[in-house]
Amino acid sequence: MCPQISYTLKIVPWFTFRTGFQIVKNESKIVCKCHGMSGSCNLQTCQRELSLFVGIGNALHEKYDNAVRTKLERHGAANDLYEVKKNKNGGYRRNSAKLKSTLKKPDSGTMVFLNESPQYCKRDPEYGFPGTGGRTCRINSYSSDSCDELCCGRGYHERQVLTKSRCKCKFHWCCEIRCKQCSTIETKYFCDHD
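User: That's the sequence. What structure does it adopt?
Assistant: Structure tokens below.
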């Protein structure tokens, strides 16, 4: 493996680990308890306690949303990570070779990344992503399975689908359950293709 790639694979996770560790530390609190006869505080013990995981998760999510794209460059005797200039629209170039450095090192506590995440919405055979075209979505959901979220703004269509399921089940003595098969027509929603 090329020494520069090896160094890059070590330094980027280190930034992320350090940021995550700092968040866990900042979100923790010191809790003290008193010990003694009838509630007197003759002896007090204190320890650091983690806060609720949701607080840590929210802080990490905010850092993730504000992560800074970096590039490994050699200035002087050492290789180091430097922030990358953004386009006029606030994004980054897709082509890593054309990225320009700001010569500014990322701040401590900043999450960094080297490459843009793949576009999961579109089909990409090179990476084995099937895309979201044709996927079933839920029209009334506010979660990641919602049609607005899952279909990536391409739209969706409605289709009537025949589904079969077990119904009218009855228990027969001893130890047997007998069911009928019922068919229903349901309205399902599917993401449009590109």
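The first helix runs from residue 3 to 27.
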